[in-house]
Amino acid sequence: MTLLIIAGILTPLENLLTNVLEWLHTSAGFSWAWSIVALTVIVRMLLVPLTVRQIHSMQNLQAHAPEMKAIQQRWKHDKKRQNEELMKFYRENKINPAASCLPIVAQIPVFISLFFVLKDFEREIFPQYPDSGLDWLGLVNITEPTKDGWGPLLLVVYVASQLSSSWLMSGQMQKAQRVLLMVLPIVFIPFILNFPSGLMIYWLTTNLWTTGQGLITRRLIPRPLPPDKRSSRAPAQEPEQPPPRAAKKRAPGDGARDGKPVVARPPRRVRRKKGGSGGRRR
Predict the structure, then answer these.
(1) How many domains does the chain divide into?
(2) Of 2, 91, 118, 132, which has the fewest beta carbons less than 10 angstroms from its beta carbon?
């Protein structure tokens, strides 16, 4: 029931992909398998603007990673406040974490639509072109499950290409996210054994494109400058200088007179009369 609903929603996209494959086969002269490869290249070229945004987003996240980690540590006992502070930090620094997933999200409808196209390809489309073939490199049939024939070899190449593309594209991610992205291709293997081999060709071509794209963008797109470090300590204040002492008023007889310097004099001595300590002073 769910597949029927999804198929109904994606019918316009299925028709578009079918028309593109037929055009590539008849006008460009590609075989059906190479038409899938060319279709993949067209899709990835259309997604280049989203891919550039993805790369900038991941670089921006890595540049601000220390500050985000500090926020997480500060509010680790209050998840609600932690999320609020992170959202505020994203707004202030114009960070969009969802931008790193845009190319993948955009390819999901194409992938599912191509699955439905290849599912009925041999019955609905292939009879209209009796002189065409379904083989790719003489190894696999694009409508047969990946587990048949040389399909497992295609699966091995897919896993290798998926790991390499994930490694290049996750260079700006945090360690936990990078490990998850590297493990997912292996986890998906049991689910894709029954996929048509043509769908695996699409996926394999996508991974090879991503690998080459990652190598090129690392050289062409410069890394953003790290943000200024913010310290929680207030800048040290200079010690306050004591107020100047008021000048002591001098008597008219003290100090300098008429601009003349004051000469120091020895203390005055008082003479006492002889005759003992009991004498009086006069």
Answers:
(1) 1
(2) 2
Residue 180: exposed, middle, or buried by beta-carbon count in 10 A (0-12, 13-18, 19+)? middle
147 belongs to a structural domain = yes
Rounded Cα distance, 21 and 227, in Å: 47
Whether 282 is covered by a domain: the verdict is no
| 89 falls within a domain | yes
Specify the range with the lowest mean pLDDT, choosing from 113-122, 231-240, 259-268.
Answer: 231-240
pTM of the model: 0.68
Q: Is the pLDDT of residue 120 over 60?
A: yes
Mean pLDDT of 156-165: 80
DSSP secondary structure code for residue 136 in this structure: E
Q: The domain containing residue 181 runs over which residues?
A: 2-220
**Nearest to 119, CA basis, from 5, 12, 14:** 14
pLDDT at 256 over 50: no
- Helix, strand, coil % over all residues of the chain, rounded to 5: 60, 5, 35
According to DSSP, residue 133 is labeled -
Q: For residue 263, is it within any domain?
A: no
Which residues are paired to 217 by β-bridges?
none
Q: CA-to-CA distance for 278 and 275, rounded, in angstroms?
A: 8
Confidence of residue 177 (pLDDT cuts 50, 70, 90): low
Q: Report the alpha-carbon distance of residue 110 to residue 112 in Å, rounded.
A: 6
Report long-range pairs for 135-138 (Cβ below 8 Å, ≥24 apart): 135/31, 135/33, 136/31, 136/33, 136/34, 136/197, 136/198, 136/201, 137/33
Q: Which of 22, 1, 5 is nearest to 117 (CA)?
A: 22
